[in-house]
Amino acid sequence: MRFKLTNWPISAGNRRRGGFTLVEALAALAFLALVLPVAVQGIQLASRAGQVAVRKLVAARVADRVLNELIVTGQWKNSAASGTAEEGVQQFRWQLRSEAWPKDSFRQLTLQVTYPVQGQDYFVNLSTLIDGNQP
Predict the structure, then answer these.
(1) Where are the domains of the chain?
(2) pTM of the model
(3) CATH number for the segment(s) 23-131
(4) pLDDT by 10s per residue, the chain, length 135
(5) Which residues contact 86 (CB under 8 A, 6 or more apart)?
(6) By the 8 A CB rule, do 123 and 115 touch?
């Protein structure tokens, strides 16, 4: 069997486009240049929010533990109490404030626990009332 080559006239209407034009490629790149930074910023924001939520939970647990320890040992009477506490590999700074309660002889103890997330400090406050006449 033999094949015979024929020269069919190729006109502009019969030609198929096999790729993108330069204008289409530039338009796609411009679109990506606008969308990509917004998408990356959204991912960073979601990541930070997740880390803040997890560390806030741990910081609240640390605050509860430290405040209970200060009350039980009587160290809450030192109005300038501060220090650091560790939970796993994370380190948290804490500071205790003791203020007079307007009624009776109670004192309001507020423990502030500070924790960093991606170079920014966040904090959790935990407060309780305690009898100021307690030995």
Answers:
(1) 23-131
(2) 0.68
(3) 3.30.1300
(4) 566 666 655 555 555 667 889 999 999 999 999 999 999 999 999 998 999 999 999 999 999 999 999 999 888 887 678 999 998 888 999 999 988 888 888 999 999 999 998 889 999 999 999 987 766
(5) 92
(6) yes
